[in-house]
Amino acid sequence: QLAGLAVIAFGLWLRFGGVMADFASNKKSPEYFFMGLYVLVGAGALMSTVGFFGCCGAARESQCLLGAFFACLLVIFAAEVTAGVFAFIGKKVAIQEAQKIYEDTYDDYMKNPGGKVNGTIYRYHLALQCCGKDTMEQQMGLPCPENIQVPKASNCLVEIQKVIDAYLHLVGIVGIAIAGTTVSKSMFS
Hints:
- It comes from Geococcyx californianus (Greater roadrunner).
- This protein is mainly α.
- It is 73% helix and 0% strand.
- The chain has a domain of 98 residues.
């Protein structure tokens, strides 16, 4: 039950907090971009509910409840494995989509530097600690955060790839840990 609550908290944090939330602030963000995180939150909610029923089954020593608990854990395990496989298979697509969103925002900014896109591109630069598509563009008046040093600033397209790689690995590690917990609970039930 506690592991399910931890999965829910982790999935919601990745979706609404941290660096990944800035990718969703743009209206052009595709809906399937965060689909794996929604599945993670759903699996966490199901795990929490099933954990409660497993505790009730163990307390009452009911073989029927424990059998249902085992069956539900099997379904959760299958959902976790499926979400993990889709996350790693779709990694390239997710990176390409995020880079395309940045490039579209960048192109919109270049067409109208004082428009609404100014805040969006600034949030990208702040979240990713980058500025532009290459370092020469820093002199072109892009809205870059003050704390970025010009020689250190890197290509935002490269930074997008690094962030998505890092978070997908984190999601994979947490998923493997939760799947291991699910398997051990199944054996005990």
